[in-house]
Design brief:
Elements lengths: L18 H36 L4 H30 L1
Helix pairs in contact: 1-2
Length: 89
């Protein structure tokens, strides 16, 4: 009788990342979100502020426009910051 051929799959041992490596990745990732998100926030806020200043809007409507500028800037900064974080991983 011929002995059976047994194929052994080589196990690639995956090293668990240490706590320091995890914290470093977390810190760098969040730092990228803050830096990139801050740049996007400043750009979009200034562009929208400039566009609304061209319309010369004052009073309550001006306040609503400024709040909408801030909200749009924050949401886009978070979106692009998270996108950059996913690309980093």
């Amino acid at each position: 009788m011929a002995p059976e051929m047994v194929k052994r799959k080589e196990r690639t041992e995956r090293k668990e990342p240490s706590f320091v490596e995890l914290m470093f990745d977390f810190f760098i990732g969040n730092l990228l979100i803050v830096i990139f998100g801050g740049i996007v926030f400043i750009l979009i806020f200034n562009l929208s502020k400039w566009a609304f200043d061209l319309q010369n809007v004052d009073g309550w409507l001006g306040l609503v426009f400024e709040i909408s500028c801030i909200l749009i800037s924050v949401l886009s900064a978070l979106f692009f910051g998270r996108l950059l974080r996913k690309l980093w991983d």
